[in-house]
Amino acid sequence: xxxxxxxxxxxxxxxxxxxxxxxxxxxxxxxxxxxxxxxxxxxxxxxxxxxxxxxxxxxxxxxxxxxxxxxxxxxxxxxxxxxxxxxxxxxxxxxxxxxxxxxxxxxxxxxxxxxxxxxxxxxxxxxxxxxxxxxxxxxxxxxxxxxxxxxxxxxxxxxxxxxxxxxxxxxxxxxxxxxxxxxxxxxxxxxxxxxxxxxxxx
Length: 202
Description:
The protein is α/β, with parallel strands linked by helices. The chain is built from 5 helices and 6 strands, in the order E-H-E-E-E-H-E-H-E-H-H. Keywords: GTP-binding, Nucleotide-binding.
């Protein structure tokens, strides 16, 4: 099952580092910043249990550039999305306000209002530079009925949990259930079509 996930947040919050850490097992270097130009994405296949059965999820994880030139993500970018990682840099309070604006722009289109969001606090390892309290982010996440996790792309702490939590959120969402039902209906239609073709051969 193809599962499209988006990384959302201001520039330098750690979106690309999170993508590489999870998909390529490459840890970020503290102080090193490499901006995404345009759009990047990676694919990772995982096995999960759903409704008593093992299912295969083909995660398509999209990273969209956050520079001023690409500040406004086209609405088409959200189409078919199963979940959004909303990243906040724990050492930069403005990144929380920036994420709020991005979520608001996404939800201007009614068809994207119910896309599940997971709030991710990055740069957990820089505890001495932290500007946002845990309580503040929990209140922020509550506005979107979202869960919250913290990660460090430098040490790798919390990265696996971050994606496990997102998959859990996606599997529980109404969007996923509808997608699964549509897939089952398509299989039935294809099977009936094959049966009709076999009958027409006689």
